[in-house]
UniProtKB/TrEMBL annotation:
GO terms for biological process: intracellular signal transduction. Its EC number is 2.7.11.1. It comes from Paramecium tetraurelia. SUPFAM superfamilies: Protein kinase-like (PK-like). GO terms for molecular function: ATP binding; protein serine/threonine kinase activity. It catalyses: L-seryl-[protein] + ATP = O-phospho-L-seryl-[protein] + ADP + H(+); L-threonyl-[protein] + ATP = O-phospho-L-threonyl-[protein] + ADP + H(+). Residues 281-351 form the AGC-kinase C-terminal domain. This is non-specific serine/threonine protein kinase.
Length: 369
């Protein structure tokens, strides 16, 4: 295996970075292309999460564009509620993505364990998510796969948005971008229509609904089943179905986010109208952005041991032998050209949104119906 040309993230260290610079401590997650490890930088002793992705699996799943897209976006972003990339490098067989270490497990794990959350806990989660989406949208990016699996807790109970694999820089004609997760995918995406920031707020609405009701508004075994349900009926939480301990404002927020028609959906005009909803009246947004609020739900250390144990189990996914052999060809390796990143050169440390030349109004879409 050869090393790539990325320099170490430590500015004073000019050596080439490779997997040999890290000690792999334990598996903390799994993905479609490999595992996520807790690693320790041998020199600095700092702990990180390292996603090790098999090039053979990436090729077999025709996902080269997806992983390269994720690298490009992460290299431009840095925010308190987005998982931040520290370094990226490769060898002949694998891609390596070094990121912030988040030890709290994803929201899906905790939803399965809790079934539901309290209103106070859910509001805290939602504010974290809104702040992450605001940052992406101001930078002209649609995440397009907001779901509990892509929201991970840190050890303080703050949620961070992960996985930019199918995120896209917004463009006016994007009806062909139909990737996503059934159940959280906005109707306009399922129906192959142009879309804007409203798709991410729809997914947020599904998550809020799930925290309140313990289930998604639309369920099915396939994308087509879910699409048929969405077309058939607009689901809303009725007043007589509101669980004990939940306010009318919280339910109204969820109902307005899961509107099928983008023109009727809260958030289609950008983050300001979402933050202005009555549910967040007098909320200390800046205080939470600066991580000065104690989280109402903090994962326990013993739970994290359980999660790590579950993640150690090997995936049953097989690698096509032809894909492995193809890695010997220079033309195949060229597809991964430029998969490098040096975190020490990224000086965007301000957690507040950084404007780009794509304005928020430009990426709104109220035309789909």
């Amino acid at each position: 295996m050869g090393n790539c040309t990325l320099k170490s993230t430590e500015s004073e260290d000019q050596t080439v970075i490779s997997i040999s610079n890290f000690t792999q401590k334990s598996v903390i997650g799994k993905g479609g292309f490999g595992k996520v490890w807790m690693v320790e930088n041998k020199k600095s002793k700092s702990l990180y999460a390292m996603k090790i992705m098999s090039k053979a699996k990436i090729i077999a799943k025709k996902s080269v564009q997806s992983v390269m897209n994720e690298l490009q976006l992460l290299s431009q972003l840095k925010h308190n509620f987005i998982i931040n990339m520290q370094a990226a490098f490769q060898d002949r067989d694998n891609l390596y993505l070094v990121m912030d270490l988040l030890t709290g497990g994803d929201l899906r794990y905790h939803l399965c364990k809790q079934r539901k959350f309290t209103e106070e806990q859910t509001k805290f989660f939602v504010v974290c998510i809104i702040l992450s989406l605001e940052y992406l949208h101001v930078n002209g990016i649609l995440h397009r796969d907001v779901k509990p699996e892509n929201l991970v807790f840190d050890d303080k109970g703050y949620l961070k948005l992960t996985d930019m694999g199918i995120a896209r820089q917004w463009k006016p004609e994007n009806a062909q971008d139909t990737s996503g997760t059934p159940g959280y995918m906005a109707p306009e995406v399922m129906c192959r229509q142009n879309h804007g920031v409203g798709v991410d707020y729809y997914a947020l609405g599904v998550i809020v609904y799930e925290c309140i009701m313990g289930k998604r508004p639309y369920v099915g075994k396939s994308r087509q089943e879910i699409r048929d349900q969405v077309i058939a009926k607009q689901v809303q939480i009725k007043n007589n179905d509101i669980p004990t301990g939940w306010s009318l404002e919280a339910v109204d927020f969820a109902n307005k986010l899961i509107q099928r028609k983008p023109a009727n959906r809260l958030g289609v005009n950008g983050p300001d109208e979402v933050k202005a909803h009555q549910w967040f009246k007098d909320y200390a947004w800046d205080k939470l952005l600066d991580r000065q609020i104690t989280a109402p739900y903090i994962p326990r250390d013993d739970e994290m041991i359980q999660i790590a144990s579950e993640n150690r189990r090997d995936s049953a996914n097989e690698i096509d032998p032809e894909s492995v052999l193809s890695l010997r060809r220079n033309s195949i390796q060229a597809q991964f050209g430029g998969y490098t990143f040096n975190g020490s050169n990224n000086n965007n440390n301000n957690a507040k949104p950084q404007s780009t030349n794509v304005s928020v109004p430009a990426i709104l879409s109220t035309k789909a119906n």
